[in-house]
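RECORD TYPE: inverse folding
INPUT: structure tokens
STRUCTURE:
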């Protein structure tokens, strides 16, 4: 049976009506009516405890949201994804990042091939290579062991590796140095290489397509740097490896395909950090910790695949996100990890969520008449509290926030961790309940500043609480967000796995490059603004020359 357009689904209509009654109710009242909701409205899986009671919902709202998930076909679509069907319709591809973390003893046949077997063959190759680097057995061209690993990649070939390296730094081998070069701005590469000894440096060129302009520009400059410092082109074989699906281009670049780690078109860039794109992660934390991370991903995949919706973390988080976005009208979501090692997690999530669900047409290409993916952003706590949280508490835009906390620090030191964690709970409490005028007056506040000190509250939060940040926990946390993004994408009826929006800018830039570098004044045929900017750029550039 075909699924009606979103606004015609029965649960959607009921939610619209329901929102008229509940949407304006304050969390203070919602908690007063249901004082034990904080003990009830939580779910737990794979070491992650989700408290969602401080959302502006009642049991009725939750029931309707889960009905909407059912009516939207989330379960059927999920099963299609896990079965390797081509659910990425605009690129006609399977979406199988879940296969990257399936245990070796399992099987998943797609187009006549067992993809799990293929995945584990690559993991074995990565393991052997990572062990050689970590054990000091892989020698550079002039006989020195590798001590510096430079990952060159961008977007999905950078954000995952850099986030995972930072997140799991505690578990990393400290006598190896890791650098991540993504920007085509030469300052990125120059600063990354400035203090490195070429004889001890390994470049991992990470690019699914091996055609990305930024990555290839950086890779060619890195190649020139290596040859200049080692004195021979033959050094490339010992100092460059590639992670890619494009063996031909890797070989044309000069990297032996024996030193290439493959993956497949069914792994999207932003879903690839647990594929060979995670080679730098495996070298940093070691194969065993990497397998632990994969097992955490897989545990959350299994939870998503089998748990009833009412206890299913990704479904709950996804549907609460739909409520906040479509019914309460919140345009952004803040993600605040109270864990310094997760400092790059918000940047990673920005790509995962916004490249996946920033879409304006349905799977059938129909223009959408409702809101889709919100803006994601964030900073680690408590730093954010001393800057932009002011707007969260008293601004005119309601920003739902995910607060991520841990019961134990990886670096226990005096009272630090309880001070840090107290802020997770305090912020969620303050955002929900604020401070009333009566409370402000009761503190003896002078009349003329009372209004300034009132905090409206009624700001929704999710609190995600776990024991300690481990490789396994990180895997589960990422998979939780992946599947929550998936759930929302199904409800919104969009293709969460393509990214056509990034193409136009790339094409236009390719046209403009020669216009910036030409010696003779080029004939410009853009709009008047772009033409004027290019002329002014050329003028400034000549001044500097
Ligand atoms: C991710 C996107 C994009 C991609 C980069 C790098 O889902 O597709 O961010 O990862 O453009 O692409 P390559 O890995 O092909 O260089």
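DESIGNED SEQUENCE:
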């Amino acid at each position: 049976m075909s699924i009606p357009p979103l606004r015609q689904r029965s649960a959607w209509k009921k939610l619209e009506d329901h929102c008229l009654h509940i949407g304006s109710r304050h969390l203070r009242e919602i908690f007063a009516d249901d004082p034990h909701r904080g003990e009830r409205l939580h779910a737990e899986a794979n070491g992650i405890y989700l408290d969602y009671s401080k959302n502006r919902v009642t049991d009725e709202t939750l029931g309707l949201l889960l009905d909407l998930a059912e009516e939207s076909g989330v379960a059927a679509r999920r099963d299609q994804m896990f079965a390797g069907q081509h659910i990425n319709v605009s690129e006609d591809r399977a979406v199988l990042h879940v296969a990257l973390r399936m245990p070796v003893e399992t099987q998943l046949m797609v187009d006549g091939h067992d993809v799990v077997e293929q995945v584990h063959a690559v993991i074995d190759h990565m393991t052997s290579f990572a062990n050689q680097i970590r054990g000091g057995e892989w020698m550079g061209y002039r006989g020195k062991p590798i001590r510096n690993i430079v990952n060159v990649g961008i977007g999905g070939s950078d954000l995952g590796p850099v986030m995972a390296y930072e997140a799991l730094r505690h578990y990393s081998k400290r006598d190896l140095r890791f650098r991540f070069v993504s920007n085509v701005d030469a300052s990125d590469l120059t600063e990354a290489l400035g203090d490195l000894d070429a004889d001890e440096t390994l470049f991992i060129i990470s690019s699914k397509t091996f055609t990305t302009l930024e990555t290839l520009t950086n890779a060619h400059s890195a190649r020139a740097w290596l040859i200049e410092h080692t004195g021979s082109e033959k050094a490339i074989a010992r100092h460059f490896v590639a992670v890619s699906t494009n063996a031909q281009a890797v070989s044309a670049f000069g990297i032996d395909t024996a030193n290439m780690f493959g993956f497949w078109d069914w792994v999207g860039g932003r879903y690839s950090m647990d594929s060979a794109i995670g080679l730098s992660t495996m070298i940093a934390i070691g194969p065993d910790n990497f397998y632990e991370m994969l097992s955490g991903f897989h545990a959350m995949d299994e939870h998503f695949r089998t748990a009833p919706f009412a206890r299913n973390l990704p479904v709950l988080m996804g549907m609460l996100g739909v409520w906040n976005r479509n019914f309460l009208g919140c345009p952004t979501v803040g993600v605040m990890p109270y864990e310094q090692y997760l400092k790059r997690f918000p940047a990673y999530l920005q790509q995962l969520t916004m490249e996946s669900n920033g879409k304006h047409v349905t799977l059938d290409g129909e223009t959408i008449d409702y809101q889709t993916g919100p803006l994601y952003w964030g900073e680690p706590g408590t730093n954010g509290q001393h800057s932009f949280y002011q707007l969260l508490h008293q601004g005119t835009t309601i920003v739902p926030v995910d607060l991520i906390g841990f019961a134990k620090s990886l670096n226990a030191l005096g009272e630090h961790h309880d001070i840090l964690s107290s802020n997770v709970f305090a912020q969620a409490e303050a955002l929900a309940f604020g401070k009333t005028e009566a409370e402000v007056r009761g503190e003896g506040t002078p009349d003329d500043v009372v209004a300034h000190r009132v905090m409206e509250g009624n700001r929704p939060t999710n609190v995600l609480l776990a024991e300690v940040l481990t490789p396994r926990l990180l895997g589960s946390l990422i998979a939780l967000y992946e599947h929550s993004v998936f759930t929302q994408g199904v409800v919104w009826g969009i293709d969460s796995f393509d990214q056509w929006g990034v193409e136009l800018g790339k094409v236009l830039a390719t046209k403009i490059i020669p216009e910036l570098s030409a010696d003779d004044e080029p004939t410009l045929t853009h709009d008047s603004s772009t033409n004027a900017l290019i002329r002014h750029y050329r003028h400034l550039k000549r001044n500097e020359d």
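NOTES: The chain is about 45% helix and 10% strand.
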